[in-house]
Fold this protein.
Amino acid sequence: MVSEPEQAAELLPVRAGEDRWTGAELTEIRTRLQDEITELGTEIAAAESQIAAGDSTDGAGDDQADLGAKTYEREHEMSLAYNARDLLVQSERALERIEAGTYGVCESCGKAIGKARLQAFPRATLCVTCKQREERR
């Protein structure tokens, strides 16, 4: 009898010349994504509390340099939180694609993304060719 991860893995697309996905490889990708989701949730919570703590400081008596430094620091924290949220959404979407059986399909051309690319960057939604085309625009 074939296990559920094995069965799901066998259905995922691969490029010509690549070995089919195994259940163990797919489980490893799922685990990595779930770990990243947990980590990113912690980072986002920490960044949001840092931003909130910065909002409550008075700033009375600060000169322009102090205000500029505080503004830069706050914008930097907001940028980090935004990036973490973006990665969180990408990771959650990758898990959804695994569950739906569409993991590894390029969202632009519909061809297989490539197993090695997904193992290196499990949130990938485009094959290398389509990603290069996107970056040239």
Q: What stands out?
A: The two ends are 48 Å apart (CA to CA). The chain has a mean pLDDT of 87. The chain has five helices and no strands. The first helix runs from residue 4 to 11.
